[in-house]
What does this fold into?
Amino acid sequence: MATETSANGVIKIGANAVAEVTGYSINYSADTVEDTVIGDTARTYKATLKSYTASIDAMYDQTDTNGQLALDVGTEISFTIYPSGETSGDRTYSGSGIITGRTISGSTGEMISATFEIQGNGDLTEATVA
It folds into this structure.
């Protein structure tokens, strides 16, 4: 089994890479509905609608006009996350979503950080770099 680091990861908003990314997460899930009937001995379910959220963590960069500054709350974006980089065969996750949160924080003697929250709009696409 192969393991990987995220050292070569890239996150793009449209065609533009987001600067100073330190981390990310994707939460992809499906709702379920119960379809248990009389006579069943255990509850049973069917999958229904899928949804996802994502977040991007970065060192704040106020000069990243096409990356971080494009992640304004309420804005709909298209994005692609390349966890291992952009080499042929690497896995990608892409979709569109609405920026639902942006947190910028810092304290004395520390780097300023930023976190961007995305609510997926439609399905998340899993593919590989050609």
The beta strands are 10-13, 16-17, 21-34, 45-59, 76-82, 91-105, 113-120, 125-128. The longest strand covers residues 45-59. The radius of gyration is 18 Å.
